[in-house]
Specification:
- About 7% of the residues have low confidence.
- The protein folds into 2 domains: 83 residues, no CATH class; 82 residues, ATP-grasp fold, B domain (D-amino Acid Aminotransferase, Chain A, domain 1), CATH 3.30.470.20.
- It is an alpha+beta fold.
- Strand 1 and strand 2 form a beta hairpin.
- The termini are far apart.
C-alpha cells in the first residue's frame, strides 16, 4: 500500500518546518513507494515552467452564518472565478489574503516526459491518441527537432509534458501513464565528428 496524499503533504510540511519555511510558496518533491515517503527536495520557490498549469484555485465557500446578524464573507473575484497558480502568487505578493482561495476539488497531475536515451530528436507520433485518453487535458511536446537530447542526470530538460485532471488521484496517474504509452519518440544516434590533430 502506497502512502496517501495526506502522508506526502505531512512529510513535506515537516521538512519545510525544519528549514524554517513558513511564508510564501514551497516547492517539495518526494519519492513514494511501499516503504514510505522520502523527501528529495524542499525549497522556498514555486513549481516551475509549464508544470504550474496543473494547479488551479477557486474561491472558498463563505461559511454558513449561524444567524442573520453575521455578515457574509466578501471574496475577491466573481463566483466561479478560477485562478492560475501564478495569479494566486501575485495576489499574495500584493498583500491579498491568499487563504480566501483553495485548490480546486479535482485531482490533477502533470508528467514531465523523460528523455529515454541520448540522441538527436527527430519527431513524435501518437499525440492525438494520447490526448484522446480519458481525463487527459493536454499533451505539450517542448523538444525541438534536431535538438540533442540528454537524459537525466546529465540533461536538465524533458521531451514535453502531459496534463490530466480527474475526480481521483489514482485516475490521474493512470491517465498520465496510459497517454505516455501511446507516444512514440524517434531519437537518432548522435553522429560524433572526430578531428585530426595532424596538419
Amino acid at each position: 500500500m502506497f502512502a496517501g496524499d495526506r502522508d506526502r503533504a505531512a512529510k513535506i510540511a515537516e521538512a519545510a518546518k525544519a528549514l524554517g519555511l513558513y511564508h510564501g510558496p514551497v516547492h517539495g518533491e518526494c519519492r513514494v513507494n511501499r516503504q514510505g515517503v522520502f523527501v528529495l527536495e524542499v525549497a522556498a520557490r514555486p513549481i516551475g515552467g509549464l508544470c504550474a498549469r496543473a494547479l488551479r484555485f477557486v474561491a472558498r465557500e463563505a461559511p454558513r452564518a449561524e444567524s442573520t446578524a453575521v455578515a457574509e464573507v466578501q471574496l475577491p473575484g466573481a463566483a466561479g472565478t478560477v485562478l492560475s497558480f501564478e495569479e494566486l502568487l501575485l495576489r499574495h505578493a500584493l498583500g491579498e489574503d491568499s487563504t480566501l482561495w483553495q485548490r480546486e476539488a479535482m485531482a490533477s497531475g502533470v508528467m514531465m516526459i523523460p528523455i529515454p536515451k541520448r540522441g538527436i530528436y527527430r519527431g513524435v507520433s501518437g499525440i492525438d491518441a494520447a490526448r484522446a485518453v480519458a481525463s487527459i487535458v493536454d499533451v505539450r511536446i517542448t523538444a525541438k527537432l534536431d535538438q540533442l537530447l540528454l537524459p537525466l542526470p546529465e540533461g536538465a530538460s524533458y521531451l514535453g509534458f502531459i496534463f490530466a485532471r480527474a475526480a481521483r488521484s489514482g485516475d490521474v496517474e493512470l491517465a498520465l501513464r496510459t497517454a505516455h504509452a501511446r507516444l512514440t519518440f524517434t531519437i537518432a544516434p548522435e553522429m560524433r565528428v572526430l578531428q585530426s590533430t595532424h596538419g
